[in-house]
Amino acid sequence: MSVGEESLRKEQVTIGLLGLGTVGRGVYRVLCDNGALITRRLGVPLEIKKILVRDLQKDRGLYIPPSLLTTNPSEVLDDPEIDIIVEVMGGMEPTLSYVLQGLRNGKSVITANKDMVAAYGRELFAAAQRTQRDFLFEASVAGGIPIIRVLKECLVANYIQELIGIVNGTTNYILSKMTLAKVDFAQALAEAQALGYAEQDPTNDIDGFDAARKMAILGSIAFNSRISLEDVYVEGIRNIKPADIQYAAELGYVIKLLGIAKNTPDGVDVRVHPALLPCTHPLAAVNDVFNAVFVKGDAVGEAMFFGRGAGELPTASAVVADIVYAARNLIHNVPGMLSCTCFEDRHLRPIEAVPNKYYLRLVVLDRPGVLAQIAFIFGEHEVSLASVIQKSAAEGKAEIVLVTHRVAEGNLRRALKLIGELPVVDAICSVIRVEGEED
Fold first, then answer.
1. Beta carbons within 10 angstroms of residue 344's beta carbon
2. Given CA atoms 370, 375, 377, 378 in this order, what sign does their dihedral have?
3. Which segments within 322-417 are labelled E, that is strand?
4. Distance CA 229, CA 88 (A)
5. Which of 40, 285, 370, 375 is most deeply buried (CB count within 10 A of its CB)?
6. pLDDT tens digits for 245-304?
7. How far apart, in whole angstroms, are the C-alpha atoms of residue 288 and residue 290?
8. Of 39 and 60, more confident
9. What is the pTM of this model?
């Protein structure tokens, strides 16, 4: 009997599910509703054998045979008949221990857990490599948008030069609401919470940490170098004011929270922060809870991937795609093909060395010579001004908006420290980077 004939003897692929929350329910629904289609495309059926839950009696809004449910992780992790483990529990522990145990037991593992992948990717890939099984995590970044496998396979012939993404739907909703409905941050956040887009404690989203984990994953894959969460520079959107959004629009920009990863001759930098984007940039039109990732490669040029970055069914779509990929590899006896790609150790540029354009909003005393004092300090630190606009004057004070040419961030910071100490400067209200255009 040939190897090919041996591989085709597998009559089905069996799945163990860890977790049955929002994403877990979505995975169950997609596998049930689209099971016949998936079987035709894969060649064999996928069967869920066991689902690990915390509460056997919980109402989950859909019928699941009680025989599938268990509170004992061993019934999933140690069952020799289960081929693939799907982790949709979230959190770090005991999730990480369960996933490592599954890999040690020779099972392929699918996860949607960005926190775990960003923090323990090296260990997880090493465990998968030891047993030659798949460890896949498409749903960990940008929900239903295919981007992980795009970078690992579809764009494998490219040196990736740049990745810019809107990878957090909550912050994109808030900034879209502030822009289109002209409300302030607090009101937009309250609406996002009322709609279920933001948690009651929204810190993870609005301070940029969620996006930073995703960019650590994308940067590691794009640049073949290990990017840890600590390597990602992070700023959130708490300090974005309606005035900044209004002035940005007048200048031809929109404000977005961007995840940015750039590959330069001086090293790579990975960061998350608000930025002014030209209204003509493809990402500028991405509103509401939608996500998008803009990729620039040396061969492909520019490409953008757009869709829903979260939610039960979009995320489940990505999880099930990974399940089918792993199942196909098992059927044909070729698992473990998409292993860790971090074979380089690229130099990381500190944020102080990264050149950018900047939007600045200052409140100063409304008197002659103020701008000359500010311009003198900028000149001493090699900060060149592209435009200067006085926006308003009242009660002896004026608001001015400045846009710089490209300058190293360290130079700008040193200049702004001295400018902030000038008696004629009342406040430096906003410092926002400008992305998506050249000088």
1. 10
2. positive
3. 355-365, 385-394, 397-404, 407-408
4. 21
5. 370
6. 999 999 999 999 999 999 999 999 999 999 999 999 999 999 999 999 999 999 999 999
7. 6
8. 39
9. 0.93
